[in-house]
From TrEMBL:
The keyword Cell division does not apply. Residues 74-98 are annotated as: Disordered. Keywords: Heme, Iron, Metal-binding, Oxidoreductase, Peroxidase, Signal. Its cofactor is heme b. It comes from Saxophila tyrrhenica. Residues 78-97 have a biased composition (Basic and acidic residues). This is Heme haloperoxidase family profile domain-containing protein. Belongs to the chloroperoxidase family.
Length: 449
């Protein structure tokens, strides 16, 4: 079953990107995926051994971390050094909002975004380009979807974590935030905590980097992290959520590790090393306990952003060729496994998705719905992602302005169980989260450093 799915994906990708990076995807891609599948069970057993050894032994983890240090980027342009003068690190103050995105948290901690963590669409576009060289189309797609689902629409602004009332913001599950994240637990299994760095997941990630000959957080390491996280979620989370848009974000977030967090340009002398990743992720090893404390995210010393923009098409291509085939979790994206699967059809799905969702802040006015959707579509057109260029049919939306009719009922979004409500607020740092794997909802999962 899995083999045929992998092969079907390979066929689709092969036809979709015939000349990608000079590789004949049809033959080499199929062969690569088949070999990978054949080695899968064997590989997983080996990974299990590595993790058993590393997870339990502090000494082993220390050795791994030491083995991952020391590489420096080559061929960097001094103009790309970050942070620039005037953008010094400051830890977030009480009340500042931070959430699941390590990059946006880093940008806020350095003042590229407002330090209180309430950010606007335009600020996001500028800061993600300046801090990390994210392409305008990719930042626009992310920003538009977030504005529609997590934001105060009239201000086109949102919280990096959640609002003081624990509403909206990037912490909001099932919108942009999804399950099977690289280093955050699933919303359900984490008892609503989908945004703090999980110590046990990062230990797994470090172990995978350590057993990779490159010793980097490259595509192989992150693909294996995806494979293991997907297995875990499929096995343990009965409410796993893999709706197209957030699931696409969750897949491409794995390639963001090498492509954005490397010191220098990945693939052109840049290195996805432990110093860079752990600093931007806010992971600080406690050498006594062997656990990772979650500390405020920051640019590492002597760090250079990538030199060229990384945009939507490359991100989708690499996510679905370099990460997803490691463990293709079924997604309700109809083109997967067919000849029609390509970055364009994925972008078209996203475009249609934007037309089909109801904005979070819909207070009631039909007019406001129309205005908001027009705003979103116009933003996409501005970066060349309109329906015509993507080949999507023009779409229309049926307004639904009673999003949560029973929102104040027990269990509704404004009356969550107390244990879960606690975890939906913005990040709290200098603690350790999830030393154990949550095989069922784990509400007690925080310890002192
Ligand atoms: C442009 C606006 C952005 C928005 C709205 C956004 C939003 C998010 C959200 C909601 C998540 C959680 C996803 C999940 O549950 O798996 C996330 C995770 C992530 N984001 Fe962003 N993000 C943005 C920009 C960036 C940029 C510029 C980078 C890299 C430089 C980045 C890197 C990541 C990574 C690596 C994760 C995964 C974290 C983990 O679980 O390990 N994001 N982002």
């Amino acid at each position: 079953m899995k083999t045929s799915f992998v092969l079907a994906t390979a066929v689709g990708l092969a036809s979709a990107f015939p000349g990608m990076a000079g590789i004949n995807m049809k033959e080499e891609g199929m062969k690569m995926l088949k070999e990978r599948h054949d080695a899968e069970q064997q590989e997983k057993r080996q990974l299990g051994d590595v993790l058993d050894g590393v997870g339990d032994l502090v000494g082993g983890l220390l050795d791994d971390v030491k083995g991952l240090l020391g590489s420096v980027a080559s061929a960097v342009d001094p103009d790309n050094k970050r942070p620039e003068p005037g953008y010094e690190f400051q830890a977030p103050k009480k009340g500042d909002s931070r959430g699941p995105c390590p990059a946006l948290n880093t940008l806020a901690n350095h003042g590229y975004l407002p330090r209180d963590g309430y950010v606007s669409f335009d600020q996001i576009l500028e800061a993600t380009a300046r801090g990390f060289n994210m392409g305008a189309d990719l930042a626009t797609v992310l920003g538009v979807f977030t504005t529609l689902t997590d934001a105060n629409i009239t201000e086109q602004s949102w919280y990096l974590g959640s609002s003081p009332e624990h509403l909206g913001g990037l912490n909001r599950h099932d919108t942009v935030e999804a399950d099977i994240s690289p280093n955050r637990e699933d919303y359900y299994l984490g008892c609503g905590d989908n945004h703090h760095l999980s110590s046990r997941l990062f230990k797994q990630n470090v172990a995978l980097a350590a057993q990779n000959p490159s010793k980097e957080f490259d595509f192989e390491t992150m693909g294996n992290q995806f494979a293991m996280n997907a297995d875990f979620s499929l096995k343990n989370n009965p409410f796993i959520y893999y709706f197209p848009f957030p699931s696409i974000v969750s897949v491409v977030a794995y390639n963001f590790y090498p492509q954005f967090f490397s010191n220098g340009t990945f693939g052109a002398g840049g290195v996805a090393n432990y110093e860079s990743i752990s600093s931007i992720l806010g992971a600080k090893l406690n050498k006594k306990t062997g656990e990772f404390q979650y500390v405020p995210e920051r640019f590492p010393d002597n760090w250079y952003r990538r030199a060229t923009p990384y945009g939507a098409v490359q991100a989708l291509t690499e996510g679905f060729t370099g990460i997803y085939p490691y463990n293709p979790v079924p997604m309700p994206i109809p083109q997967i496994g067919t000849d029609n699967f390509s970055p364009q059809t994925l972008l078209c799905d996203i475009y249609n998705g934007i037309n089909s969702i109801t904005p979070l802040a819909l207070g009631g006015a039909l007019e406001q719905t129309g205005d908001t959707i027009s705003w979103a579509v116009q933003k996409l057109i501005d970066v060349g992602l309109d329906a015509t260029t993507l080949g999507c049919p023009k779409n229309s939306i049926s307004p639904n302005f009673k999003l949560y009719p029973n929102k104040k009922q027990k269990g509704g979004p404004l009356r969550l169980p107390r244990s879960q409500y606690r975890w939906t607020g913005s990040n709290k740092y200098n603690r350790v989260y999830f030393t154990e794997a949550p095989t069922q909802p784990m509400c007690k999962h925080v310890s002192k450093p």
